[in-house]
Amino acid sequence: VQLQASGGGLVQAGGSLRLACTASGSTFSSYTVAWFRMAPGKEREFVAAQFRNGGRTYYADSVKGRFTMSRDNAKKMVSLQMDSLKPEDTAVYYCAADRGLILSEIRNEYQYDYWGQGTQVTVSS
């Protein structure tokens, strides 16, 4: 599967952005999909993930209650709605996908073989 992330930009603190990750390939519905981010000078960190069949979404504590991940398998797309943005949310955001992951693995970036190119999100104070 190939992934393409989009939707980043510059927003003031308290604002909102919606990121999208579109996929190519006929088996997108069989993939667990996640969002990660990398801030300047920091390691890439987990943001959110959802298993292939939808259902519960798992979030990092730092974004819980502010970010909402959704997926549309028919459109081969996942979205990340980001509300109440903070300057510390500034980062390059990546979508990632893989199959066969279990719950204990979904927060680990090394479990994902397929990555989008990243989209920059900048939140000004």
Indicate the low-confidence ranges by residue numbers: none
Q: Give the CA-CA distance, first to last residue.
A: 37 Å
> Helical region count?
0
Largest sheet: 7 strands, mixed
Query: Structural class, judged by helices and strands?
Result: mainly beta
Task: Please explain how this structure is put together.
The chain is an all-beta fold. Strands 2, 4, 5, 6, 9, 10 and 11 form a 7-stranded mixed β-sheet that branches. Strands 1-3-8-7 form a 4-stranded antiparallel β-sheet, with no helix packed on it. A hairpin with a 4-residue loop joins strand 7 and strand 8.
Task: Please describe the structure with a list of short key phrases separated by commas or semicolons.
seven-stranded mixed sheet, 0% helix, four-stranded antiparallel sheet, globular, 125 residues, mainly beta
List the SSEs and their pairings:
Blueprint: E1 2-6, E2 9-12, E3 17-24, E4 32-38, E5 45-50, E6 57-59, E7 67-72, E8 77-82, E9 91-98, E10 114-115, E11 119-124
Please summarize what this structure is.
The chain is 0% helix and 49% strand. The chain is mostly beta strands and 125 residues long.
